[in-house]
Specification:
Length: about 100
């Protein structure tokens, strides 16, 4: 099993070329995004037995820590995570990986 740990966070970068009508998320929208992205991630991972756990976001917080335990490679998990996070306008940073 491989274990990957990430910091998942919200950062307002302003509208983009791909989403020119985007607006900054409210504190409630940030908390919702930080809670809900992992449900979508579970469907994007190819390993049906993958285990995803994230810390519970608190009011005013703009980040959570995510742990993914899976048989998938780092590249595969990163791809699924990036696709998921972009839809929620969230970002992810790999903190630790343990393969084996």
């Amino acid at each position: 099993m491989n274990t990957f740990e990430y910091r998942i966070f919200y950062r307002w970068d302003g509208p983009s070329h791909s989403d020119p009508m985007a607006s900054e998320k409210s504190p409630k929208e940030i908390i919702c995004a930080l809670r809900e992205f992992r449900n979508e991630l579970a469907h994007r991972l190819q390993d049906p037995d993958a285990d995803t756990k994230a810390s519970e976001p608190q009011e005013g917080q703009k980040e959570v820590h995510l742990r993914v335990r899976t048989t998938e490679s780092l590249d595969s998990v990163n791809c699924a995570l990036q696709e998921t996070l972009s839809g929620w306008r969230l970002y992810g940073e790999l903190l630790h990986e343990q393969q084996g």
